[in-house]
Amino acid sequence: xxxxxxxxxxxxxxxxxxxxxYLGTLPFSRKHETEADEVGLILMTIAGYNSxxxxxxxxxxxxxxxxxxxxxxxxHPSNKQRITNLRTAISHAKWxx
Length: 97
Description:
By secondary structure, the protein is mostly helical. It has three helices and no strands. Helix 1 (about 5-45) crosses helix 3 (about 80-95). The longest helix has about 40 residues, at about 5-45.
């Protein structure tokens, strides 16, 4: 970027920031949220709670929310995706019992 004017450098900086956020940070944040849900299910099961209640909880949360940002703009999985992920994770968490 040697010799580029300040407007060009600023534009490249903005594109870099947007790219790193939407292609780097946010997908990892959603992955971390999913992993936290999975660990939570295991801990619920160990503590003797019914892990199936997590689906009921997120179903209620989904019904209460007016709208959600598109998934690629969010740090969390959508409620629908979270419920799908929990259904899969519950079968894996049940071995703990």
